[in-house]
Each structure stands twice: as structure tokens, then as C-alpha cells.
Amino acid sequence: MKKTDTKYKNILVIEDNHAILDVITLILQSEAYKVNGLSKSANFMEHIDAFNPDLMILDIMLPDADGRVLLQELRLNEKTRHIPVLMISARYTKENLQNVEFKPDAFVAKPFDIDDLLDRIEGLLAGKNYM
């Protein structure tokens, strides 16, 4: 995949750890993505409507919500069910997400390798599913 294919895609990141959110934001911006970051889930659907993300990075453990519940909300909504979701977590593993009704399109454990994260994002934007 050429880097020009990924330019100007919108990525919404919901991550409560500000250091991780900042790192992800800086990395993605350096790769020419437009990034909007949230540290909690409050009003996240309004952010989605306003930002129109091409992809979401969603932490499972948020201070005000469970990322798996947010994923379910996304999948049940006609306007957002098509958005690829990459879930991240320090506590959970990909195996923890195998038996849930609403699966993300990919999962990356924290701490993550930057190149792995970027490869997953590019793959998801190209239509791949890693689950």
C-alpha cells in the first residue's frame, strides 16, 4: 500500500491515558492522518457525527465506560456500524474478545509496537479484518 493512499483519513482515538493518547496522536499525524482524541467516552457519538472517522482506536478500559459496550453501540447503529475499530488494552487479550457478540476488526495489546499499530491501521483502512 502506498503511503499516499492513507493521507487525510480521519482517525478517532478514545484512550484515557493521556501519554498514550498523545503518542498515538503524534505518530498518526506524522503519517498524515487527521486525528481526534478523546480521553473518555462521554458524547462520543456526537464526536463521531462531527468528525466522521474512517477508523476508530478504542481502549477497552475507560474511566466512564467499557470499550466493549461502546463497540456494541457502534455496531448497532446504522450510521456507524461500517467504521473499522481497532481495540487496545493493557489488561485484555485478543482471546478475551473471541467469544463476544460484537468483535472489533483488530486488537493490539499495550504496550504496543508503533510499526505493528501502523500496519494494523493501514490494513484496516484497506478493508482487512484481523479477528
Automatic annotation (TrEMBL):
GO terms for biological process: phosphorelay signal transduction system. It comes from Pedobacter quisquiliarum. This is Response regulator. SMART domains: REC. The gene is cheY40H-2. Residues 10-125 form the Response regulatory domain. It comes from the Bacteria. It holds the Pfam family Response_reg. PANTHER family: RESPONSE REGULATORY DOMAIN-CONTAINING PROTEIN, STRESS RESPONSE REGULATOR PROTEIN 1. The modification 4-aspartylphosphate is found at D59. Keywords: Phosphoprotein. InterPro entries: Bact_response_regulator, CheY-like_superfamily, Sig_transdc_resp-reg_receiver.
